[in-house]
Amino acid sequence: MHKFVRNFLTEWRKLGLPFENASFIAAISGGADSLSLLLVLNELRERKKLQNRFVAAHFNHNLRGEASRKDAEFVRALSEKLDFEFVGEISDDQYQISKKGNLEQNARVARYEFLTETAQSYKAFGILTAHTINDQAETFLLNLIRGSGISGLSGMKVLNSKFQVSSSKFKEKSQISLIRPLLSWARRDDTENFCRENEIEFRNDAMNEDLGLKRVRVRKILLPMLEDFNPKIIETLAKTANLLQTESDILMELKDQKPNTKDPYLFLKDLKTLSKSAVYQVLRNWLKTNRDNLRQLELKHIEAIASLIVSRKSGKMVELPNDEIIVKKEGKIFFQKRKVEKSGSAN
Amino acid sequence: MHKFVRNFLTEWRKLGLPFENASFIAAISGGADSLSLLLVLNELRERKKLQNRFVAAHFNHNLRGEASRKDAEFVRALSEKLDFEFVGEISDDQYQISKKGNLEQNARVARYEFLTETAQSYKAFGILTAHTINDQAETFLLNLIRGSGISGLSGMKVLNSKFQVSSSKFKEKSQISLIRPLLSWARRDDTENFCRENEIEFRNDAMNEDLGLKRVRVRKILLPMLEDFNPKIIETLAKTANLLQTESDILMELKDQKPNTKDPYLFLKDLKTLSKSAVYQVLRNWLKTNRDNLRQLELKHIEAIASLIVSRKSGKMVELPNDEIIVKKEGKIFFQKRKVEKSGSAN
After folding, report:
1. Averaged pLDDT for residues B236-258
2. Where are the beta strands (DSSP E) in B6-145?
3. In chain B, what residues touch A217 (CB-CB under 8 Å)?
4. What chain B residue is nearest to A256 in terms of C-alpha separation?
5. pTM
6. Residues within 8 A of B (CB atoms), A 61-100 only
7. What does the pLDDT read at residue B337?
8. How high is the ipTM of this complex?
C-alpha cells in the first residue's frame, strides 16, 4: 500500500471514523489536495478497507468564467470515471456569493452552505475536506501577521464534530462533522506526488499564482524564506497551531465558568467552586473593572483576598494600596474606598 | 518633556516602582537602547522626578578584543560625564563565560551573574535592562521558528519580581526585580532618535551586523519583509507575546494542581478540588496514559466520568468503547477492561 494511503487509513482509525455503512461528502475543487483525497478514497474503497458511500461534491464559485466551468467539468468527469456519485452546484443558482465585504470569506460561506445541505440530503456522517499541513501553516502565519490571540492562532481542527457554518440559513445545531483527514500529516508535495503517481493531472487555480493575495505571498515568498531558518518550518508551525489549540480549549472552558466581574461585589459561593488559578484570574479582572487598572497591586494582595475567601481565620478585610479595601460580609466580598479623615491643611 | 521621557515615567508609575530612596542597577552595553535608558534616567533625576540611586553597570564580555575594551571605556566615560556611579567588569576576571555549548547563552548567564551580584552589593531594588519591543518581536519569531509551545512564545516580562538567573552561583531565591521599562512601548528607532537628539553617539556592536546570526537575519531580512504585510508587525508580535504570556500564566497555575495521571486510578478527593476544565484535562491525560490513545473517545464519555466523580446518583460505572469501563469504588476511579465471554470459535 502506498505510504499516502497508509497514512490516510491510520488517521481515519485514529479519528474513530466509521469503516462502513456511513455516507461522506468529499469537497473536491480539482486541485492536487482534493484530487489526492478522491484518489485515496477510491483506493481504500477498492481494497474494501472503507465500505462507505462517498459522494464527490464540487462547488463552482463561478469567479473565473470559462476556467471555473472547465474545473467543474473536469471534476465531474473524473468522479464518474472513478465511479463516485457527483454533486455539482454553481454559485449563481442556489448559493449566492455576497458581493459585500471579503470575497474570499463570502465564497467560503456559500461553499459550506452547499456542502452542509448536500450532507444533510445524504444524511451524511460528515464532510471531508483536503486541507494539508501547508494550509494550517499558512493560516497560522496569516493570523499571526494580522494580529490574533491564542484562539486565532489555534488553527483548523482535524475533526469538528458539530460543524456549523456562520450562515443565516442554518438555525439548528448541525449534527454533521467537518473532517480534515490530511491536515495533521500531508504536505502539499505529498498530494501533488500522489496525483502524479496515479497519473492524474490536477487543475491549477490561477488565483494560486496571484501575488496580490496575501495567502499567495505567504506561500510563495514568506514560507520559503522561513525554510532557510528551519527546513521543517511547515511542520513546526502546524504543530504550534495544534499546541495552542489544546491550550485554547482549556482556557475557553475556564472562561465559561467565571462569575461576572463587572459587579461591585462577588459571591463567595461562586468563588469557592473555582480552581485557584481561576480565582486569581477572576479577582484580577474584578479589581481591574472596579479600580480601572491594576496599578500598585501585587501578588500578595491577590493572595490575601484569596485567603479571605476561603478561610474563617483571615478576618473580614484586606487592605490595598491607596486606601482601598476589600470587605467580606453577607456571603460576598465588596470593593470599597476607605473614608479618610481629612486633616486641615493649607493645600 | 520629550515624549520618550514621558512614556518612560508613565511606565515607571504603572509598574509601581519607587520614586525615591531605592537603588537600581542599569545594565549599559553602549548601544542605542541602553544609552537611551541612561539618558532618560539622567533627565528624570535632574528634573527630580526620580530620586533614586542609579548605578551604571557594564559587563565587558571581552569577545571582540579591542572593540570590547573601547565599548567599556566609552560607557565608563559617559557615565562619569553624566555623574552616574559606574561598575565595570571583565568576563575574564570573576565571571567566566563557559566555552561549552551556546556562546550567546553562556555570555548571558555570566552577564546576569555580574548584574545580580552588583545589585546585591548595592542592596538594589532591581536591575534595569533596555530591551525594546523590537527585542520582544525578534525573540518571539526566533522561538516560533525554532518551535515552541505557549510558554516559549510568551516572551520576556516587563517586570520579573523575583528574578533568578539559572546559575549554580545562586542557591537562594533572589529578592531582586528584573525590570524592562522600555519593553512594552519603545521601538529601536525611538531609542536611536532619543540618543541623536541628546547628541550622544551610540556604539554599534559588529555582531549586530553579522548575517550568520539568526537574530540578525530576523531583524534585517525577515522583519522588513513582514512589514510589507503589516507595517505595525513589531507591535503586533510584541502584543501577541504579551497575550500568550497572560494565558500561559493561567495554564501554569492550572498544571501545578494536577494529580498524577500515570496511575491506574485517580482519587476522587483530588478531582473534586479541581475546576471543571482541569478535571476534563486530567481525565483526558489519564485515559491517554491508560489506553495509549484517545481513539473513539468522545466528549460525552468525559462528561459521564465527570458526573460519576461528583454525583452519588450517577451509579458506579461508565462504559467506554471497546469494552473498557471506568469503575468508582473506595474513593477512587479505576480504568478497567471488561472481561468478555469468548464464544467458541474456529478462529
Report:
1. 77
2. 20-27, 51-60, 85-90, 126-128
3. 228-229
4. B277
5. 0.74
6. none
7. 86
8. 0.72
